[in-house]
Amino acid sequence: MTFVNCLAAVLSLAVAPALAQAPSPFNIRFQQGQNLLVLADGGTATLSADAVGVATTGTLSLTYRGASSAQITINSVELVGSLDFSLGGFAQSLPLTVTGGETVSAPVRYLPSSGNRASARLVISYTENRVTASVTLNLVGLAPDFAFSYTPPGGNAQPIVSGNPILFPQTPVDTTANAVFTIINRGSGPGVINSITASGAAFQLVGAPLPGTVVEGGRELRVGLAFTPRQTAPSTGSLTVELFNQRLSFPLEGSGASAQFLYEVIGERGAALVQPEQLISLPDAPVGERSSLNVRVTNAGNADGRIAVITVSGAGISLTDLPPLPVVLAPGNRFTFTLNFAPNQAGRVSGRLRIGNDQFDLSATGLGAVLSFAYVVSGVSTSVPNNGAVNFVPTAVGTSSSVTFQITNTGTAPGSVNSISISGTAAVFELANVPVLPVTLSPNQTVSFVVRFAPNLVGVASATLRVDTNSFSLNGAGTAPAPLPSYRFEGASGTQEPLQQPAVSLTLASGYPLTLNGTLTLAFNSEVFANDPAVQFATGGRTVNFTIPANTTRAIFANGAQQMRLQTGSVAGSIVLTPSFATEGGINLTPPNPLSLTLTVAPSAPRLLNVSLSGRTSTSLTLLVSGYATSRSVTTMELRFTPVSGENIGTTQLTLNVESAFLAWYQSQASQAFGSLFTATIPLTITGDIKNVATPADTIQSIAVTARNALGVSNSVSLALQ
Predict the structure, then answer these.
(1) Rounded to 5 degrees, what angle do the CA atoms 243, 246, 249 make?
(2) Rounded Cα distance, 627 and 44, in Å
(3) Which residues neighbour 496 within 8 Å (Cβ) at sequence distance 6 or greater?
(4) Which residues, including other chains, have CB under 8 Å from residue 713's CB and lie 6 or more apart?
(5) pLDDT digits (tens, 9 = 90+) for 103-117
(6) What are the tens digits of pLDDT across the range 436-460?
(7) Are 700 and 592 in contact (CB under 8 A)?
(8) Of 622, 639, 642, 635, nearest to 700 (Cα)?
(9) Which of 600, 632, 489, 581 is nearest to 535 (CA)?
(10) Sign of CA dihedral 13, 17, 23, 28
(11) β-strand 389-391 against 470-479: which pairing, if any?
(12) pTM of the model
């Protein structure tokens, strides 16, 4: 007669210490790329990823060392540790019988969620000659994680991210300022710098690394940046860093130091900057009369400047109020002189103004005609004087409105229009159907063109329309864009099973005229007062960005995907997905009460995943039972024993009260990282009389395990011992 000592059956959630084992019956190999490792029991395989979020895969191969007639059974494969590792291959079809000399393989996938070193343990349970044992392999994952800093000339290093500018201090023209750009690999594994390039005529790289340079984890790479300005105007460029899976850009900005002359034309409407070789239009003057404008010269540089000559050419054009020449201007100093136009005949006059080494084209018109102006909206014409205002109807962002601008010669002689342009900071006004200039208008003749207004922001916008020397204020108001169409979620809905990756998509009811940028946010509301970190998007984290291109309906996620997968975890609760929407200009289009999608993981009875034998002696057995309980509650475990034929055991069923042990585990800080997953260790002591077997432990043929909580009984998992 044999029996199971009930008092010795104790649940322990701690990891049992490793037991001494016989040599592994397997030849163990692990290959990643061209690298092949031969591992012993307890050995370590390292997988190096190219970047965070980029998967790498190795192959685990087990070759049974037994004779060709021998067999071994692989019972289970348990992967414990970082969730960045996953296992496929034969691990998906267990138990598996392998004959002597036969090899089985499984891919090991490492998808790093951060640059930190990741580790996991792979426990392979097997039965050989009726003895169940296990081999253990350690997995280590390494990945690079790059950060950047910039050390300006004579300054201290400061962190910088892609898109932020690298600023050089003001540098004398034709001299060089040197800075340092540093790439820091703060991850655990090596990373590759595909290339580092710089654009912009004033910027050069010093000591740039060769393409494909490797930066080990915890190390840094320094590259010199040289700035050599050839002018005082701001210089711009870009520093581009090509990594394995991303392209980073850092704008380069700097300016030179030198004497620099700034020219302003001052007329009745104020001052306007003019560049050398640009056209200066003098005010129109009736024949026999005179018009004037002032030209102001300022040294806007940081060094003295000398001007030795100021001359002008052109019929009827003259200079007055000149300073004594040569004139030397210190930085910030200025002087002013006058340009005069006194036509003796009607028509356009061209000339040339020289100030030192800079020259300007001049134009002026002797008036013999009178031009009037008007604009037409919806068939209604409104007269507008010089310096008057052209008002557009309020226009929704994403649409446009227009006016027809008319120029009529109401004089008694032909008149001409030489230039039509728009100036100002608002880039939402544009010209269309402009006639070829210059255009001559006979008396009572009209010429017209179109001015369009296409706002990109809500609010008032203005610019200046110039027709020769006449100017008109363009005024428009951008109104709120059209409301967002209704949208819907497609794909997964309702109640979901634990430990799944359902997919969802987001679709507008109709296309929207503007490109939309959005964010999909995941919130997890636990029903058992415990968060589950595994509840997140498959790409990591609880937010993902998407775009909806103009005039389309489907949300596009990273890498062009039209669906986004999420992990349901193992804890009961509701997973709420809520989108937000905005235009590229930053206008928020999210409804006040946005529609959300709620997925539910229901509280349920425990679910057992596996039972295995972690230790065996002649009078004892140690079981490992793994599973999960979405309600984070397990009250009892029941063990059913089947004896070997011919043996009689006194105890065929054993019920263990494990509620307090599981309550302690689920209330512990250590359990928070695993949701409701658990692994229970159950040691059993077996004593009594035996008949046909060698030891008391041999009297048991198999053990079936179930678990229970207030919501019901789990599935049954069994372990064959004979």
Answers:
(1) 90
(2) 26
(3) 502, 568, 575, 599, 600, 601
(4) 605, 706, 707
(5) 999 999 999 999 999
(6) 999 999 988 999 999 999 888 888 9
(7) no
(8) 642
(9) 600
(10) positive
(11) parallel
(12) 0.45
Cα 97 from Cα 309, distance rounded (Å)? 100
pLDDT of amino acid 270 = 86
Q: Please give the C-alpha separations between residue 715 and each of 80, 157, 614, 627, in angstroms, as whole numbers.
A: 22, 60, 21, 10
| Under 8 Å between Cβ of 468 and 367 | no
Backbone torsions φ then ψ of 673, nearest 5 degrees:
-75, -10
Report the distance separating Cα 513 and Cα 502, nearest Å: 31
Do 680 and 658 form a contact (C-beta atoms < 8 A)?
yes
> Per this entry, what is the length of the chain?
722
- Kind of pairing, strands 166-167 and 247-254? parallel
How many angstroms separate the CA atoms of 214 and 224, rounded?
18
For residues 458 and 561, the model is more confident at: 561
Q: Quick one: tokens of 579?
A: 């989108």
Helices (H), 193-277: none
As a whole number of angstroms, the distance between CA 223 and CA 394 comes to: 52
Phi, psi of 671 (to 5 degrees): -75, -15
pLDDT at 22: 64
Q: Are strands 380-383 and 56-64 parallel, antiparallel or unpaired?
A: unpaired
Output DSSP code: residue 12.
B
Helix ranges restricted to H, 88-214: none
Give the number of other Cβ atoms within 10 Å of residue 558's Cβ: 12
- Residue holding tokens 């065996």? 616
In this predicted structure, what is the pLDDT of residue 2? 36
Q: Which amino acid is at 141?
A: G
The answer to whether 291 touches 364, Cβ cutoff 8 Å, is: yes
Residue for token pair 């030489």:
418
Torsion of CA 77, 78, 83, 85, to 10 degrees: -30
What is the number of H-type helices and E-type strands within the chain? 1, 64
Q: What is the pLDDT of residue 413?
A: 74
Neighbours of 231 (CB within 10 A): 14
Assess contact for 696 and 688: CB atoms under 8 A.
yes
Tokens 């789990």 correspond to what residue? 714
Q: Which residue type occupies 468?
A: D
Phi, psi of 717 (to 5 degrees): -120, 140
Tokens of 343: 């036509």
For residue 555, give the DSSP letter. -
Is omega for the bond preceding 438 within 30 degrees of 0, making it cis?
yes
pLDDT of residue 431: 94
The number of beta carbons lying within 10 Å of the beta carbon of residue 669 is 6
Structural contact between residues 348 and 438, judged by C-beta atoms closer than 8 angstroms: yes
Q: Name the pairing type of β-strands 358-367 and 279-281.
A: parallel
Burial 516-555 (b: 16+ CB within 10 A, else e): bbbebbbebebbbebebebbbbebbebebebebeeeebbb
Q: What is the mean pLDDT of the chain?
A: 91
Q: What is the pLDDT of residue 590?
A: 95
**CA 437 to CA 419: how far, in whole Å?**
7
Give the residue carrying structure tokens 């009037």. 372
Which pair of tokens denotes residue 96?
Answer: 């598996």
Backbone torsions φ then ψ of 650, nearest 5 degrees: -75, -30
Give 278's DSSP letter: S
pLDDT digits (tens, 9 = 90+) for 165-175: 999 998 888 89
Locate 610 and state its tokens.
């596996």
